[in-house]
# Entry
Amino acid sequence: MLLDIEPQPGDGFIALAELATPAGVIRLAEPKTVEKFAHDLYSALREGDARNLSKIVVATPKGEGLAIAIRDRLKRAAAER
# Structure
């Protein structure tokens, strides 16, 4: 899992719906709200694993509150790998 980089063709991609999916990138989730992002995140990561994707790029949500918690958890998870 990589955070906040431009996904390349063949990569999985998790981001809020407002971000476009680059050509050739596999969209795993495109929630419309930060709350839905939090809800869908782990199932999208599991889907990427099930598809045997070598890279999953996550565009972390901006903002306060829940967005901060999501960014913090994702940064920790990325560091654990």
Q: What stands out?
A: The mean pLDDT is 96.
